[in-house]
UniProtKB/TrEMBL annotation:
Pfam families: His_Phos_1
Protein's name in the database: Probable phosphoglycerate mutase
InterPro entries: His_Pase_superF_clade-1, His_PPase_superfam, PG/BPGM_mutase_AS, PGM_Phosphatase
Domain of life of the native organism: Bacteria
CDD domains documented for this protein: HP_PGM_like (cd07067)
PANTHER family: BROAD-SPECIFICITY PHOSPHATASE YOR283W-RELATED, GLUCOSYL-3-PHOSPHOGLYCERATE PHOSPHATASE
């Protein structure tokens, strides 16, 4: 296995309402379901195209492996692709979204009003203190460890990981050998968009081939 696709779930009502999701197990909304279907159709074509999927012995395309976060917005997105490729979706707890502690379910305005100092720290990209938010570096380690473990057992075909905006961003940062607590070189993925990484013999072991590929972007949570 040499290619990994990191695919963010489709839109939810929390995305629209500018609410922090974290571990809240909210489903896709109607737009999100449509985004998942459209993204799955495009991604399936990418994986089937020459160079998009790897060849097994004899020249046949090697099967794709799809692993999702346990949260249902990610699982529903993953299932849209799995139905097109006729493969099963499994889940891995290490792919869950960043835990936002006391802020989960709140709007940006509610957070700013209730915790102005912690909010200001968060907006600069650093870890807010005293509100039980999972540190960026911890998210990066957790997610990247899960991806490396899955990649080691995925076989010859591409691995598709379906997860969440913050988790994918911090995890990709870690996979590229950067410190997620202090390096901010990647913007968040739009809903139903993906990144593509390819394994490399050179440090850090992965190279970034695509970022935020997919259908038309939707508004991101600031």
């Amino acid at each position: 296995m040499t290619d990994i696709i990191l695919w963010r779930h489709g839109q939810t009502d929390y995305n629209v309402g500018r609410r922090v999701q974290g571990r809240v197990d909210i489903p896709l909304n109607a737009v999100g379901r449509a985004q998942a279907e459209a993204g799955a159709e495009l991604l399936a074509d990418v994986l089937r195209s020459p160079g998009g999927a790897h060849e097994a012995e004899g020249g046949a395309s090697a099967p794709c492996t799809i692993v999702s976060s346990p949260l249902r917005r990610a699982r529903a997105t993953a299932q849209a692709l799995a139905a097109r490729l006729a493969v099963e979706v499994t889940t891995h707890p290490g792919l869950a979204e960043r835990d936002f502690g006391q802020w989960e379910g709140l709007t940006v305005e509610e957070i700013e009003s209730g915790w102005p100092d912690a909010y200001a720290m968060w907006r600069t990209g650093h870890d807010p203190q005293g509100v039980e938010v999972e540190p960026r570096s911890a998210v990066g380690r957790r997610f990247s460890d899960a991806v490396r473990s899955l990649a080691a057992t995925a076989g010859q075909g591409p691995l598709v990981v379906v997860a969440h905006g913050s988790a994918i961003t911090q995890g990709t940062t870690a996979l590229l050998g950067m410190d997620a607590s202090s390096w901010f070189g990647l913007r968040g993925l739009d809903n139903a968009h993906w990144a593509r990484l390819r394994s490399s013999h050179r440090t850090p072991g992965w190279e970034l081939r695509d970022w935020n590929a997919g259908a038309e972007p939707t508004a991101l949570l600031p």
